[in-house]
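Hi V.,

You were right to ask for the full record rather than a summary. Here it is.
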Amino acid sequence: MDDILSRLAKGLASGLIEIVDLTHTLDADFPVMILPPEFGQCARFRIEEVSCYDERGPAWKWNNFSCGEHTGTHFDAPSHWVSGKDLPYGSVDTVPLGNLVAPACVIDCSAEAEQNEDYLMDVDKIREFESAHGEIQRGSWVLMRTDWSQKKGSEYINLREDGAHSPGPNADAVRFLVDERDIIGLGTETVGTDAGQAFHANPPYPAHFYLHGAGKCGLQCLSGLDRLPAKGSIIFAAPLKIRNGTGSPLRVLALMNGSGNIPCGS
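Predicted structure:
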């Protein structure tokens, strides 16, 4: 074990293992999901200066900040959805640690999402991925790459009179990943694990319903999935340890094979 950790440290120091940041910068301009007005709304990120090397604190600078649990790049715990509300280990402070560090499979749906903003990843797309890269291992994160993270502002939410329009998985795909592949969770580049029009699905928002009902987790608003291999990366996704929290902003990092002699995190 000591040798494994030593080789990991040497790989990180030499750049043979590259660290890739999959996280958007959290600021007041980052868009959040907008629900119909009769529902409660997710709070945007807000920061307030407490002191800045001045009369309020001559030798230090710090800030207060506030935001919703599901603001920015964020983690969904099983208790986020009604289907997972009664599960043990369902909040961010009780999610098993082994679920926070795990291998990732990146399914590239970017071409389909570019052609169709409402694209739904189906089981055929997952089987196509497995034909090329091997079966998705039990205990993996599955990350749906759409390059949606490259959109900015209102284009990112893409809200119109009939609701939001963005890609996601269909119900059969989520059931397959949960029941047949026993994944840890699903990650997306959009504001939710479901497609923008998923309220029309049966059940509504099937990614949330099936994932969280089975004790699985979600990652949303990821960035940089185009830098990851289809297989071979390790994801670190540790939310804040909020008592009974349903989710949390977090910084998601991936470890992958690098070329060597590069600064860590470049």
